[in-house]
Amino acid sequence: MSGVLHPPESVYNLIPKEEVHTQKPPMYMSKFRPLVVLEKKSTKDAMRTMGPAKVEVPSPDKYLKKHSKEPKLPEKTQCSKEVRHIYTTRKPSVPARTDNPPLVMHTKRDYIKTTTLVPMKPQPTFVDTKKGHKQRLENSGLVPKYIKKKDYGEVPEYLLQRSEEEQRAQEEYDNFVKEQKEQGAMKHLSDEERQAVVEGLKKSWDEVHHEYQGLSLVIDTLSKKAHKARLEVAMKQLENDINLFERFKSIYIPITRT
Q1: What backbone phi and psi angles, to 5 degrees, belong to 147?
Q2: Residues 6+ away with beta carbon under 8 Å from 30
Q3: pLDDT tens digits, one per residue of 104-129
Protein backbone atom coordinates (compact mmCIF):
# COMPACT_ATOMS: atom_id res chain seq x y z
CA MET A 1 0.00 0.00 0.00
CA SER A 2 1.01 3.53 -0.55
CA GLY A 3 1.44 6.00 2.28
CA VAL A 4 -2.10 7.51 1.84
CA LEU A 5 -4.07 7.51 5.07
CA HIS A 6 -7.75 6.60 4.90
CA PRO A 7 -10.27 7.25 7.62
CA PRO A 8 -11.28 4.15 9.57
CA GLU A 9 -14.31 2.37 8.27
CA SER A 10 -17.50 2.95 10.27
CA VAL A 11 -21.18 2.35 9.80
CA TYR A 12 -21.94 5.97 10.61
CA ASN A 13 -19.84 7.09 7.67
CA LEU A 14 -22.14 5.24 5.23
CA ILE A 15 -25.17 7.28 6.25
CA PRO A 16 -25.20 10.66 4.42
CA LYS A 17 -25.25 13.65 6.74
CA GLU A 18 -27.42 16.69 6.25
CA GLU A 19 -25.63 19.97 5.72
CA VAL A 20 -26.61 22.56 8.29
CA HIS A 21 -26.33 26.15 7.10
CA THR A 22 -25.89 28.70 9.90
CA GLN A 23 -27.24 32.14 9.20
CA LYS A 24 -25.25 35.04 10.60
CA PRO A 25 -27.07 37.93 12.21
CA PRO A 26 -27.05 41.15 10.21
CA MET A 27 -24.15 43.53 10.80
CA TYR A 28 -24.80 46.24 13.35
CA MET A 29 -25.44 49.63 11.82
CA SER A 30 -25.85 52.73 13.94
CA LYS A 31 -28.90 54.79 13.39
CA PHE A 32 -26.80 57.97 13.60
CA ARG A 33 -24.59 57.00 10.68
CA PRO A 34 -26.35 59.18 8.08
CA LEU A 35 -26.15 62.22 10.39
CA VAL A 36 -22.43 61.69 10.95
CA VAL A 37 -21.73 61.39 7.24
CA LEU A 38 -23.73 64.51 6.52
CA GLU A 39 -22.02 66.51 9.27
CA LYS A 40 -18.60 65.41 8.06
CA LYS A 41 -19.26 66.53 4.52
CA SER A 42 -20.72 69.85 5.60
CA THR A 43 -17.76 70.87 7.85
CA LYS A 44 -14.84 69.54 5.80
CA ASP A 45 -12.81 72.04 3.75
CA ALA A 46 -9.68 71.67 1.68
CA MET A 47 -6.46 71.82 3.82
CA ARG A 48 -8.38 73.04 6.85
CA THR A 49 -7.05 70.62 9.48
CA MET A 50 -4.39 68.68 7.58
CA GLY A 51 -1.99 69.21 4.70
CA PRO A 52 1.03 71.40 4.05
CA ALA A 53 1.45 74.58 6.09
CA LYS A 54 0.90 77.88 4.37
CA VAL A 55 4.40 79.46 4.44
CA GLU A 56 5.43 82.54 2.59
CA VAL A 57 7.62 81.71 -0.34
CA PRO A 58 11.14 83.19 0.12
CA SER A 59 12.17 85.97 -2.18
CA PRO A 60 14.78 85.19 -4.85
CA ASP A 61 16.91 88.08 -3.58
CA LYS A 62 17.30 86.54 -0.07
CA TYR A 63 19.41 83.57 -1.00
CA LEU A 64 21.91 82.00 1.44
CA LYS A 65 25.23 83.83 1.23
CA LYS A 66 28.69 82.76 2.28
CA HIS A 67 29.60 83.21 6.02
CA SER A 68 26.07 84.43 6.75
CA LYS A 69 25.54 81.97 9.63
CA GLU A 70 28.89 82.52 11.38
CA PRO A 71 28.86 84.46 14.73
CA LYS A 72 29.80 88.09 14.36
CA LEU A 73 32.27 89.77 16.70
CA PRO A 74 31.25 92.96 18.50
CA GLU A 75 32.28 96.17 16.83
CA LYS A 76 35.42 97.90 18.02
CA THR A 77 34.92 100.86 20.30
CA GLN A 78 37.21 103.56 21.60
CA CYS A 79 37.51 101.83 25.01
CA SER A 80 38.61 98.52 23.50
CA LYS A 81 41.22 100.33 21.40
CA GLU A 82 42.68 101.98 24.54
CA VAL A 83 42.86 98.69 26.42
CA ARG A 84 44.57 97.06 23.48
CA HIS A 85 47.05 99.92 23.36
CA ILE A 86 47.85 99.46 27.07
CA TYR A 87 48.59 95.73 26.70
CA THR A 88 50.61 96.14 23.54
CA THR A 89 53.02 98.78 24.85
CA ARG A 90 56.67 97.78 24.76
CA LYS A 91 58.48 96.87 27.96
CA PRO A 92 61.46 98.92 29.10
CA SER A 93 64.73 97.88 27.55
CA VAL A 94 67.29 95.77 29.39
CA PRO A 95 69.72 98.00 31.37
CA ALA A 96 73.18 98.29 29.95
CA ARG A 97 76.28 96.99 31.67
CA THR A 98 77.51 100.49 32.44
CA ASP A 99 74.25 101.56 34.14
CA ASN A 100 74.35 101.94 37.91
CA PRO A 101 71.85 99.60 39.62
CA PRO A 102 69.49 101.08 42.23
CA LEU A 103 70.68 101.02 45.81
CA VAL A 104 69.44 98.07 47.93
CA MET A 105 69.30 98.06 51.73
CA HIS A 106 71.56 95.25 52.99
CA THR A 107 70.95 93.53 56.32
CA LYS A 108 72.82 90.93 58.33
CA ARG A 109 69.66 88.97 59.10
CA ASP A 110 69.51 85.54 57.47
CA TYR A 111 65.86 85.05 56.57
CA ILE A 112 66.34 81.47 55.38
CA LYS A 113 67.95 80.46 58.64
CA THR A 114 65.31 82.16 60.78
CA THR A 115 62.46 80.53 58.87
CA THR A 116 63.94 77.01 58.92
CA LEU A 117 65.17 77.14 62.52
CA VAL A 118 61.75 77.24 64.19
CA PRO A 119 59.05 76.21 61.73
CA MET A 120 55.69 77.81 62.18
CA LYS A 121 53.01 75.40 63.36
CA PRO A 122 49.44 76.02 62.29
CA GLN A 123 47.11 77.04 65.06
CA PRO A 124 44.17 74.65 65.56
CA THR A 125 40.94 76.28 64.42
CA PHE A 126 37.29 75.35 64.04
CA VAL A 127 34.54 76.47 61.66
CA ASP A 128 31.39 77.78 63.35
CA THR A 129 29.36 79.05 60.38
CA LYS A 130 28.25 77.63 57.07
CA LYS A 131 30.28 80.31 55.23
CA GLY A 132 33.54 78.94 56.59
CA HIS A 133 34.39 81.53 59.26
CA LYS A 134 37.24 80.21 61.39
CA GLN A 135 38.12 80.86 65.01
CA ARG A 136 40.94 79.66 67.22
CA LEU A 137 40.15 76.43 69.03
CA GLU A 138 42.04 77.47 72.15
CA ASN A 139 39.58 80.22 73.12
CA SER A 140 36.42 78.38 72.05
CA GLY A 141 35.89 76.38 75.23
CA LEU A 142 35.74 73.12 73.29
CA VAL A 143 39.12 71.90 74.57
CA PRO A 144 40.03 71.67 78.26
CA LYS A 145 42.53 74.17 79.65
CA TYR A 146 43.91 72.68 82.83
CA ILE A 147 45.70 75.85 83.94
CA LYS A 148 42.31 77.40 84.73
CA LYS A 149 41.37 74.70 87.25
CA LYS A 150 41.17 75.72 90.89
CA ASP A 151 43.49 72.95 92.06
CA TYR A 152 45.94 73.23 89.15
CA GLY A 153 49.53 72.53 90.21
CA GLU A 154 48.55 71.05 93.58
CA VAL A 155 49.41 67.53 94.66
CA PRO A 156 46.32 65.28 94.66
CA GLU A 157 44.98 64.13 97.99
CA TYR A 158 45.43 60.43 97.25
CA LEU A 159 49.17 60.97 96.65
CA LEU A 160 49.49 62.84 99.93
CA GLN A 161 47.58 60.08 101.73
CA ARG A 162 49.76 57.40 100.10
CA SER A 163 52.96 59.19 101.05
CA GLU A 164 51.74 59.57 104.64
CA GLU A 165 50.92 55.86 104.82
CA GLU A 166 54.37 54.95 103.46
CA GLN A 167 56.03 57.30 105.93
CA ARG A 168 53.98 55.83 108.82
CA ALA A 169 54.87 52.29 107.75
CA GLN A 170 58.53 53.23 107.52
CA GLU A 171 58.44 54.76 111.01
CA GLU A 172 56.74 51.67 112.45
CA TYR A 173 59.31 49.44 110.80
CA ASP A 174 62.18 51.59 112.10
CA ASN A 175 60.76 51.50 115.61
CA PHE A 176 60.35 47.73 115.46
CA VAL A 177 63.89 47.30 114.17
CA LYS A 178 65.20 49.62 116.85
CA GLU A 179 63.49 47.63 119.60
CA GLN A 180 64.74 44.33 118.21
CA LYS A 181 68.22 45.75 117.83
CA GLU A 182 68.27 46.89 121.44
CA GLN A 183 67.27 43.39 122.47
CA GLY A 184 70.06 41.96 120.32
CA ALA A 185 67.74 39.86 118.17
CA MET A 186 68.25 41.68 114.79
CA LYS A 187 71.16 41.77 112.39
CA HIS A 188 71.80 44.50 109.81
CA LEU A 189 72.36 43.34 106.24
CA SER A 190 75.04 45.02 104.15
CA ASP A 191 74.47 46.05 100.55
CA GLU A 192 76.27 42.95 99.23
CA GLU A 193 74.21 40.63 101.40
CA ARG A 194 70.98 42.39 100.49
CA GLN A 195 71.82 42.16 96.77
CA ALA A 196 72.64 38.47 97.18
CA VAL A 197 69.28 37.89 98.88
CA VAL A 198 67.49 39.72 96.05
CA GLU A 199 69.29 37.62 93.41
CA GLY A 200 68.35 34.44 95.26
CA LEU A 201 64.71 35.49 95.48
CA LYS A 202 64.65 36.28 91.75
CA LYS A 203 66.21 32.90 90.95
CA SER A 204 63.57 31.16 93.07
CA TRP A 205 60.85 33.15 91.29
CA ASP A 206 62.22 32.06 87.88
CA GLU A 207 62.16 28.41 88.96
CA VAL A 208 58.57 28.65 90.21
CA HIS A 209 57.53 30.55 87.10
CA HIS A 210 59.15 27.91 84.86
CA GLU A 211 57.21 25.22 86.67
CA TYR A 212 54.03 27.33 86.34
CA GLN A 213 54.54 27.65 82.58
CA GLY A 214 54.87 23.86 82.31
CA LEU A 215 51.33 23.24 83.56
CA SER A 216 48.88 21.58 81.23
CA LEU A 217 46.46 23.73 79.27
CA VAL A 218 43.41 21.87 80.56
CA ILE A 219 43.21 21.91 84.34
CA ASP A 220 40.21 19.75 85.14
CA THR A 221 41.19 17.83 88.28
CA LEU A 222 41.38 18.96 91.91
CA SER A 223 45.07 18.10 92.22
CA LYS A 224 45.96 20.23 89.17
CA LYS A 225 43.92 23.16 90.47
CA ALA A 226 45.54 22.94 93.92
CA HIS A 227 49.03 22.74 92.39
CA LYS A 228 48.35 25.80 90.23
CA ALA A 229 47.05 27.77 93.25
CA ARG A 230 50.19 26.87 95.29
CA LEU A 231 52.47 28.08 92.51
CA GLU A 232 50.55 31.37 92.18
CA VAL A 233 50.74 31.99 95.95
CA ALA A 234 54.48 31.22 95.93
CA MET A 235 55.16 33.64 93.04
CA LYS A 236 53.11 36.38 94.74
CA GLN A 237 55.03 35.96 98.01
CA LEU A 238 58.37 36.05 96.20
CA GLU A 239 57.35 39.23 94.36
CA ASN A 240 56.42 40.92 97.67
CA ASP A 241 59.76 39.92 99.21
CA ILE A 242 61.70 41.22 96.21
CA ASN A 243 59.86 44.56 96.34
CA LEU A 244 60.53 44.80 100.09
CA PHE A 245 64.29 44.18 99.73
CA GLU A 246 64.58 46.57 96.77
CA ARG A 247 62.61 49.38 98.42
CA PHE A 248 64.39 49.55 101.79
CA LYS A 249 68.14 50.01 101.74
CA SER A 250 68.66 49.18 105.43
CA ILE A 251 67.33 45.71 106.20
CA TYR A 252 67.44 43.94 109.56
CA ILE A 253 66.82 40.23 109.84
CA PRO A 254 66.22 38.21 113.03
CA ILE A 255 69.18 36.23 114.39
CA THR A 256 68.47 32.52 114.60
CA ARG A 257 69.96 31.07 117.82
CA THR A 258 70.81 27.41 118.12
Answers
A1: -70, -15
A2: 36
A3: 677 777 777 777 776 678 888 888 88
